[in-house]
Amino acid sequence: MKPTMVFSRTPGxxxxxxxxxxxxxxxxxxxxxxxxxxxxxALGRTIAVAPVGCAVYGYDYWNFDTTEAAHGRTPAVxxxxxxxxxxxxxxxxxxxxxxxxxxxAEIIHAANRGExxxxxxxxxxxxxxTGGQMAPTTLAGQVTTTTPEGRDVSQTGYPMRIAELLATxxxxxxxxxxxxxxxxLVRKAKSLIQKAFAIQDAGTGFSIVEFVSLCPxxxxxxxxxxxxxxxxxxxxxxxxxxxxxEQVGGKD
Length: 252
Ligand SMILES: Cc1ncc(C[n+]2csc(CCOP(=O)(O)OP(=O)(O)O)c2C)c(N)n1
Known about the structure:
By secondary structure, the protein is α/β, with parallel strands linked by helices. It is about 35% helix and about 15% strand.
């Protein structure tokens, strides 16, 4: 009997091995973006801007046009590309150090201007690439290399809830948070990306999808323990949901 093909690699990704650690969420997010773009028949009109961080090699993995920006500056580069080439689907792909720390001003202003770009935001609660330092999204009490006794919110503030924060801005038309650590959540994550890209194509404003993501290497745990940490701790601080969706009657 001829075998039936049940799964194949999406043509939206190059046929290469990535540099990501076991359990990392970046690869899952990359695949979902790629699958959605293939289903939209949009590979040829997509331009992604890769961040400084673990996803810096996005151009080696995505099978669509990609450029690079200085740390935190992907929204500015994405803004320029979208304004010059408004028919392109433009993605600003960022980690939480990139977006919520060094790039905080960039993201707030791009969102507030209602730039017609989509941000895919990977929140792994630390600076992954540089060895696990505290990020603005690090949980209260979380141990990182720069908070060896746990994050003290009286000294370093509270974990930043980007999806909720940006949803308050009128230029933002879609803001949601998903997760990547369980099959059902991965399916939902894909639908969030579909909605965000649809908002961009509708031309009404800015869209962002934040993903709660695993970083077992820098959290110092194995992948299963990291899944438990997300369920037990991270989702309490970063609840999943759609905080604004103009197309289903979200409020400005
Ligand atoms: C201007 C500048 N400052 C600092 C760095 C060092 N640096 C490289 S990646 C990074 C943090 C990346 O963390 P995040 O954005 O959370 O992404 P992740 O690696 O976790 O995916 C830092 C601080 C740099 N490359 N450029």
